[in-house]
């Protein structure tokens, strides 16, 4: 089935992912397109990625990966990058995570929320990470939580009124993609964004494909269902 054009009749978005680099594996090129249009895109990360590099102690790793993520986001025009400090590799779905995400949704008041793939696999090709599943599902639920005055009532006490203005909720790297964004002009920015995660990429070892190759292969797979245009796909819920 062909992929439809992702709606772009909005001005602000919040990206909710589990780790540094999650958005850069494909999605950053779409963000570069949107910020070039003058849209505001903010990032929210559930963890600092401290468990992501086997040869680096967690405290040091967290500092490095935060620094890399901030630089990576800036490459595609994102100025706001927040971290919730849930434990990398052990993020739990539950009320604390839902509340933390709902708090940021109420504060940032986005029209679009982009969440990480929350399903067990990537289309049956390989298993998804537990952190991705927990954060993706919690973010989906937090969109409704953010709109309900009587859920997480303490947020109102913090001065955060309910926000029901999320018009589009989309899943990044979904195995059931329905829409795509043309990234022909912003593809290179997406590659540069991923390259900022140098310590993480080095930790993956020499057998991991080069970012430009990996991202182009993904964008070309999307192109097969998107009129031949390099694209980033999303499932619009």
From TrEMBL:
Keyword Cytoplasm among record annotations: no
The organism of origin for this protein: Streptoalloteichus hindustanus
Top-rank taxon, per record: Bacteria
Entry keyword annotation includes Zinc: yes
GO molecular function list: hydrolase activity, acting on carbon-nitrogen (but not peptide) bonds, in linear amides
UniProt KW keywords: Zinc
Name by which UniProt lists this protein: N-acetylglucosaminyl deacetylase, LmbE family
GO biological process terms on file: glycoside metabolic process
